[in-house]
Structure formats: structure tokens, C-alpha cells
Specification:
By secondary structure, the protein is an alpha/beta fold. The chain contains twelve helices and 18 strands. Helix 5 (146-158) crosses helix 11 (289-301).
């Protein structure tokens, strides 16, 4: 089979690999689509350390079971995965905080994921509920968003809201958050430098969109009487994004630094000023089993519009071009698929 292999920082290749062999309890998933996540791009750049190359990346996947050695899984079932394979028995796992389990292995991070024609889901993952079966009514073009939507739902649960929300970035995460915030009945503002992404945010319910010019930022502060109640940063949290978040939030407001940060990036705060500003600072990441279940239900209900999000598809054989496309932010979501 063809697979896109993350060999080391700044090195990616398309390789011919054997179709994974199964042992008792494993299942084999044939890929239909698998998205390229911002974390995959960050790993390739060397900005994050939670990947263990060489590995086939890819955790935003949609596929079908084509071989099963597990008595509870049938061939033909449409599936995606919870890509965090945790122990299932520690205090963190018992409290649906699998992401803090000390023995976690990540699909597409530590073990081979979905940027290939086939992927093996090990018995332990099936036994601990990490194989997510879905009805055939969910097409692969929507199913690949189940995991990132679960991350967004987790952020919505953790964040403090009042009336007005600004979302920094209109990539896939920002556009899903736009819809979720609007569904919550809140004033929804999106700040995004690229015009084509702002246009999509407007079609998905943003009340207003802004570029990152000083004039636009001033306008946003003016119409919100000094700033929004909540900022969710769904972009790379570099120095300029961090500064922008603080510039547009009101005193006492909440800032959720959802997006990844470049390696070595620091958040420096004057504690006296922070005390009197009363800001609530937080960072949401990943998902819970509950948020993935809620995400699945939203997909079943057709509650969100994913059609404008999947803009670019590449065959696995053109994996390097796919990653270049995603890194250049030419569309919204880039995915790879079999030939």
C-alpha cells in the first residue's frame, strides 16, 4: 500500500509499505479520506514534540472495516477513531481525561495512522472504546471532521461566555467554532487575514469578519464597547496572535489559547496588570470521549455545514503536494485519499 511517512523533522516521503497484518482482536480500516491537521504540519516543522517519527501521520480519518479479528466488529462498518489510545483504567481515564493518561499512544503520532490506504486499529483500542462506529448516513467528507469537532466541543464546554465572542482564525477549527458559537446564540466575530476564509466565515454565520489591520481591530473594539467578552484563538499562537487576543478582549474577559504555539513561544504577564484586568486565561486542547460522542450526534443530525470546509483532496501518491497545499493555507481543509 502507499503511505505518507513522517521520517523526521522537515522530511516527509511517500512509501510503499506492507498492508498491516492483524493479530487477534485487531481490525483493519480501509481509508476513504484523512485530513491533514495543523498539528501534523507543526510536527513536520519541528514545533511540537508529541510525535514519534518515523510514523504514518493522520488522525482525522474516515474509513470502512475490511478485516476484523475482533468479535465485536463487523466488516463493512463505517468508522473513525478516537486517536488517543490510553490505558482505560487509571484515574484520568476513569474521569474521561484520557489525554492526561501517562501511557497514552497517539494514532498518527506514535503508531501508524490514516495517511495510508489501510490502517490497523489494535485490539486494545477497540477494547477501550476508541473505534467509533457511525451510520452510513454520514459521508466520509463529514466523518473526517468528527475528531476536530470533538475538540471544538470540548473548548466550548471549558470556555467562559457572556455575550460577544471573537474567534481568531478561520481555518477548519475556527469555522466549526463559528457555527457552534452562533448556535449558542452569541454575537460572533471572526478575525482572519485571508479574504477567502473571511468570506466562508460569513456564509457560516459570523455576524461580522475583520482582517488584522489596526483599523479593523479598532472597529471591533468600538462596536463591542471596548472589547469582546471572550476570545478563542484558533490560530497559531505566536507573539502577534497573543497580542491581538489581549487587544480585543474586554477587562474581565476570557481568553482561550486553543491553537498550537511555535516551539519556545512564551506568554509573559505583568501580574499586577493581570490582577486588575481580571482576565480568565486558559488553553483547551484535544477532546473527551463525551465530546466525541456529542460530535457524532451533531453529524448524525446534520447540525453543522461542513461542505465549505473540505476544499482540497489529493491522492496519497501526491502526499508531499498535499502537505505543501495545507501549509500554504490555499483552501480550508486538505485531505488525502486512496488513488
Amino acid at each position: 500500500m502507499k503511505a505518507i511517512v513522517f521520517e523526521k523533522i522537515q522530511q516527509l516521503s511517500v512509501q510503499e509499505k506492507p498492508i498491516p497484518a492483524l493479530t487477534d482482536g485487531d481490525v483493519l480500516i480501509q481509508m476513504e479520506l484523512c485530513g491533514i491537521c495543523a498539528s501534523d504540519l507543526a510536527a513536520l516543522r519541528g514545533d511540537v514534540s508529541d510525535y514519534a517519527p518515523p510514523v504514518v501521520m493522520g488522525h482525522e480519518l474516515a474509513g470502512v472495516i475490511v478485516e476484523s479479528r475482533h468479535p465485536d466488529v463487523k466488516v463493512g462498518e463505517r468508522v473513525t477513531v478516537n486517536p488517543m489510545l490510553s490505558c482505560g483504567a487509571c484515574v484520568q481515564c476513569e474521569n474521561d481525561l484520557d489525554k492526561y493518561c501517562t501511557t497514552i499512544e497517539g494514532i498518527g503520532h506514535d503508531i501508524d495512522g490514516g495517511h495510508a490506504e489501510y490502517m490497523r486499529m489494535p485490539k486494545h483500542g477497540v477494547d477501550t472504546g476508541k473505534l467509533i462506529r457511525v451510520p452510513d448516513s454520514i459521508p466520509p467528507e463529514e466523518l473526517l471532521f468528527l475528531e476536530p469537532l470533538g475538540c471544538c466541543l470540548n473548548a466550548m464546554r471549558e470556555t467562559f461566555f457572556k455575550d460577544a465572542v471573537a474567534i481568531l482564525g478561520a481555518g477548519p477549527i475556527g469555522l466549526m467554532l463559528t457555527q457552534l458559537v452562533k448556535r449558542a446564540g452569541l454575537a460572533t466575530y471572526v478575525v482572519e487575514p485571508q479574504a477567502h476564509r473571511r468570506a466562508i466565515a460569513e456564509t457560516l454565520g459570523a455576524d461580522l469578519t475583520f482582517d488584522i489591520s489596526s483599523e479593523s481591530v479598532a472597529h471591533l473594539r468600538d462596536i463591542t464597547n471596548g472589547g469582546v467578552d471572550t476570545v478563542i484563538s484558533a490560530t497559531t499562537n505566536n507573539a502577534s496572535a497573543i497580542a491581538l487576543a489581549f487587544e480585543i478582549v474586554r477587562r474581565g474577559g476570557c481568553l482561550n489559547f486553543f491553537g498550537l504555539a511555535p516551539e519556545g513561544e512564551e506568554l509573559r504577564i505583568n501580574l499586577e496588570e493581570f490582577h486588575y484586568a481580571g482576565h480568565k486565561l486558559m488553553a483547551s486542547w484535544a477532546f473527551s470521549r463525551a465530546s466525541l460522542e456529542a460530535s457524532k450526534q451533531l453529524l448524525i443530525e446534520k447540525a453543522l455545514n461542513f461542505k465549505p470546509l473540505l476544499t482540497d483532496r489529493f491522492p496519497i501518491a501526491q502526499g508531499l503536494a498535499a502537505f505543501d497545499n495545507a501549509a500554504a493555507q490555499r483552501g480550508i481543509k486538505t485531505a488525502v485519499q486512496p488513488e
